[in-house]
Amino acid sequence: MSRDRQYSFTACLLAGVAAIALPAAAVHAQDAQTQTTEETVERADRIVVTGSRIARPEVATSAPLSVIDQQALTDRGFVQAGQALNDATSITPSVPQTAYSGGSSGGGQQYPSLFGLGAGRTLTLVNGRRTVATANGIGDPVVDTNSVPTGLLSRVEIVQGGGAAVYGSGAIAGVVNYVLRDDFEGVQIDAQTGISSRDDYPVHSLRLTAGRNFFDGRANLAANFEWSRSEPLLASARPETERARLLVANPADTGPSDGIPSLREIFDAHFWSFNANGVLFFPPAPITTAFITADGTPYPEGGVPLQMGPDGMPIAYNPGELAGVPFASGGDGLRYDELGALYSGVERRNINVIGHYDFDNGVRLSTELLWSHTQGEDARAGRPSNTILNPAASGAGAIQFDRSNPFLSADAVAALSAAYPAFGAGAPIFISKMWNDLLHDDSAFTTTEVYRALAALDGAVEFGNRDYDWSVSISHGRADGNTRSWGVWQTRFNNAIDAVLDSSGNIVCAINNDGDPATDDPACAPLNPFGEGNVSQEARDYINTVFGETYTNTQTNFLATFGGTAFRLPAGDLAFVAAYEYRYEEAEFVPRQANLLGLGRQGIPTASESGSYDTHEYSLEVLVPLIGGATSMPLVEDLEFSGVYRRVEHSIAGGENVWDAGLRWTVTSDFVLRASRSRNFRAPNLNQLFAPVQTANSSVGIDPCDFRYIDSGPNPSVRRANCEAEWAANPGYEALPSFQNSSTNFQTALVTTSGNAELRNELSDTTTYGFIFEPSFVPGLTIIADRVEVDLTDGLSVFGPAQFLAVCYDSSTQSQDFCSGFTRDATGQVVAANSSTVNAGRVHFRGEVYNINYDVPLDAVFSGDVGQLNLNLEATHVSRLETSVTGFDLSRTDGTVAQPDWVARLDAHYTRGPVRLTYTLNYLPEVLRQEGSNIENDPNPVVGNNFRHNVSGQFQVNERFSVRGGVNNLTDERPSYPTLDYGEIIGRYYFVGIRANL
Length: 998
Hints:
Number of helices: 14
Oligomer: single chain
Distance between the termini: 53 Å
Number of strands: 51
Strand content: 35-45%
Largest sheet: 22 strands, antiparallel, barrel
């Protein structure tokens, strides 16, 4: 999309609101806002808003802040907070969904990521305090939105840009703060159910919240229990994935400027080299000509390939229209869309207790208690395979058999011998298959259980005729997680697949018939690989074992603050807050026994990991009124400076100084300017620092010298020259014009991963500036716009094989530090490589966030009680998002599917008496499918725009009962072609709910 079109879109948004607002300029607006901005969140005497610890008489900050309230979840039928966050235009949606068919849909956990900078760069708080991380104990300290208690949720405040000076590590892109209610009274039961228009993906929820005031209102205790469950959604359930679309090399392409894409689409994609029955091959011919055919005539010269049928007899096999290795269009191979699910199923249970007691001396004792249990189900986590594509060393290579295999009938041996005479003479045949019937279950489960307890004391003291606020709190949290899935015990698989006849004519495992008692295994049951559905239960029980991991995160956090007003300035009191925070984090990662012992296909053990660190953090925040009150002047009603300094002492990463400085200038009562500049940081996590050395077979990603990629990259001429020089020095390598690295797509290289104890903190500089416009001549209208700029250096980046290869060949001066990160064999194939984390990344973000809110004065147009109408438009514009893992090859993703240049949402809320109606429009613009997409390299370089319409209604039956219902994606808008996630793949979705206040 052109820049002119981008700014035209902005103009249209502003003009649309103005067209509604201006005719009613003289009318005073009603209060009716459910999803708002920081200027209208709360009008209490003194409040603390996210991004600061100073209590203020109004919600006034120098940095952008947006708010989602609890009513927004009800209006849209959301059952957990993450769904509402996904609707925020500045947050990259996080859903338990695979981006493409054939991939895992994950464990169901969701983590907010502001501006697409990564979940690890968005800090999550509960009531302004840190909470224990719920992700894998050695990864980024991120918090699953499933654990947030929606029944007691008052609002979600989102700071857009920075926050580390106030809250510490991780607040680079911003902060998400869940603010809970502390005054709930009564008993409320809420139930909801929903289902798609295709009668799938049901979601059910039940919530019970009870609270009571005690001691004449000085105390309150509230508890919330909630449960929700969503079922998995398989790839075959939607036409976008059921059509099994893939991109493959286009033989019609003649060059880089012929207007013909180098790639072409195929549909009904299959893996032609294997299926569930087992495709038959003979060695060692090239794979595409190595099919065993019915009459021995080579394929594709007229021979009909063979597969094993369910009855153990060879039958005809249609490989489809081959489109290179390993895909074909059509045929009898395994369908591509059978490999993955679209959405994981998620079940969550939360219990949250929150309470406080106000003593006579003004001290408040408060507590928060949380228990959360979440289980995600990835319904197609992975089925084992033994295919001709995999090397034997991987444990997943094709299965070799000869005529003596006892599962072959005489007729089968005869048919195979006729097709391949060498087989009759004792030569082997290979069977290549995906096992649909080998595992007890091909689902994977991720379970997380979170415990958190917090106690706090807050109070005020008077000294020198001034009041000072103080607060101390201590919290302890623990997250226990585990993953589990059935997998193949490789040694037992090898035992079972090697079957023979014993002296009585019974089929037995060869190890039990070799005359050596030392190798016997009485539990071994022979495995029949021929056809689908022939695996015995005994063999399945013998081969299956549980793989996965367990992890534990613990966090202890102590926070003490002291603040108030230090002295009087001409424009007002100088306010301050001093804070000390101590944090202890510990994580432990323990693989399950099968992983520890290396029982899997590659036979490589997984090591345990554990570690801990603590931090001592000191901060001082000030709010300095420069002009105001008696010192006001024309065009400067108020001018205030805010500043924060924080010193962090990290027991592993060392010390860091971060700061934040801001200005807020009230030009008139209608117009406010604001700006901020901050230094923020993120500390390396325990895995990045101390991951043990482990080696496993893996793919290496893109090899720059592969003929498919040699003329691309940031410096194509440099890349080609470096590759040509190395090939000239190694004449035994495969010819460069046709060189294709097999480890690009297949797990044929040994990759050694390890931690890096020399890591430093990653740093970012963030700048924001914008305005707030509340025109007195249009009461009820608020327009807010802010620019956000983030420049990150020393980014914590995973430096894997692809990165070592890229830096080596794309650098004018090749460095041995990078070129030694991988090893080629005598033919040029990459056979070994390293992977670790380094401080090499860079990020440059430029964007704006807009919010236009208008309470429409209907009573100015219509007489009588006609209700209240609120319109809210939120939009985020990303003008630049550049990232680099290596530090020099910046990749720009703004204006692509990964990061659209515009994301917008329009909300309309109408209330009259017991009726509440809501309409929401979600907009995504036309974008490139990926960076650099054009007709030369992509048959669909442009992805069309996407509009989703959502409607809901709520009716208050009486004081106790209300009912609601709605339709999300009313027009059943599909994801923009050819993506699965640019839009909503679930489709039209209905929900109904009921709420009872007892």
